[in-house]
From TrEMBL:
InterPro entries: YHYH_dom_bact (IPR047773). The keyword Signal applies. The lineage of its organism: Bacteria, Bacillati, Bacillota, Bacilli, Bacillales. This is YHYH domain-containing protein. Residues 1-23 form the signal peptide. NCBIfam families: YHYH_alt. It comes from the Bacteria. Keywords: Signal.
Length: 56
């Protein structure tokens, strides 16, 4: 019984402290922005220069 409780607590801690996921992992300039690729424009994901994870 004690082992089951410890597993539940460990899982709660694991899922409770998840890291945040960022929209873009790389190839951004010092301001956190970049130009869209032709492939992204074709998919309608963006239209030109835009920012990722801009601090407000």
């Amino acid at each position: 019984m004690k082992k089951i409780i410890m597993i539940i607590v460990a899982l709660a801690v694991l899922f409770g402290t998840a890291t945040s996921a960022y929209a873009h992992s790389g190839r951004t300039d010092k301001n956190g922005g970049h130009n869209c690729s032709a492939k992204s424009k074709q998919k309608g994901l963006c239209t030109g220069y835009h920012y990722h994870n801009k601090k407000k």
